[in-house]
Amino acid sequence: MANDANNVRVALTGSIFMAPKGTTAPVDLDTPWDAAWLDLGYMSDDGVSLEYSTDTEDISAWQSLSPVRRILTSVDMTLGFTAIELKSRTITAYFPGSTITTVSGAVQRLDIPSAPGPQEFAFGLEWIDGTIKNRLVIPRGEVTERGGITLARSEAVALEMTVSAYASSAPEIATWLSNDPAWAAA
Questions:
Q1: Exposure string over 94-122, b if 16+ CB within 10 A, otherwise e
Q2: DSSP string, the chain
Q3: How far is residue 147 CA from its own chain's centroid?
Q4: One digit per residue, pLDDT tens: the chain, 186 residues?
Q5: Structure pTM?
Q6: Angle at 127 (CA atoms; ends 123, 133), nearest 5 degrees
Q7: FRET pair for 185, CA 20 to 30 Å: which of 6, 60, 108, 138?
Q8: Cβ neighbours of 55 (radius 10 Å)
Q9: Which of 139, 40, 143 has the alpha carbon at shortest distance from 97?
Q10: 137-158 burial, b for 16+ CB within 10 Å, e for fewer?
């Protein structure tokens, strides 16, 4: 198998979308995201991290020094990103269960609950490299980790979040669409 530099991809630009759980996602790369899918806006220049891991458990036998079988015990998928656009959707995603209300005129108030419950959403990730477009949809996900918020003169106020994907009613944890010609079967 020969190396082919034409198959090396970068994510030049993209977006992260968030919608109520159960919102229908585009099933192709040409259909625009429905209005229910809110674009979370600018992200830090670190981009987005997509992590996927599996855990297994070995079964050993008296007659063998090496495992005779491995059983898949868990699958974990996460999206990590840092939102630098402070708007209602990013702030309420960072502070689950919070609400924003108008106090008077242009003054807004964020009420952060002391004991927020679970808050699941659908998440979409789209990234582009020239004519190559990719979309990843997580039908059920939740912000499960948050980084500290730094307030400084020399950097943007940033909301670092990690979204954990949960299994949906389908057997998939997520769906990835791509028009990458390198994906075509040989």
A1: bbbebeeeeeeeeeeeeeeeeeeeeeebb
A2: ----GGG-----EEEEEEEETTPPPPSSSSSPPPTTSEE---B-TT--EEEEEEEEEEE--TT-SS-SEEEEEEEEEEEEEEE-S--HHHHHHHSTT-EEEEEETTEEEEE--SS-----EEEEEEEEETTEEEEEEEEEEEEEEEPPPP--TTS---EEEEEEE---SSS-S-EEEE--GGGS--
A3: 15
A4: 588 898 899 999 999 999 999 999 999 999 999 999 999 999 999 999 999 999 999 999 999 999 999 999 999 999 999 999 999 999 999 999 999 999 998 999 999 999 999 999 999 999 999 999 999 999 999 999 999 999 999 999 999 999 999 997 767 899 999 999 999 865
A5: 0.91
A6: 115
A7: 138
A8: 10
A9: 143
A10: bbbbbbbeeeeeeeeeeeeeeb
Residue type, 50: L
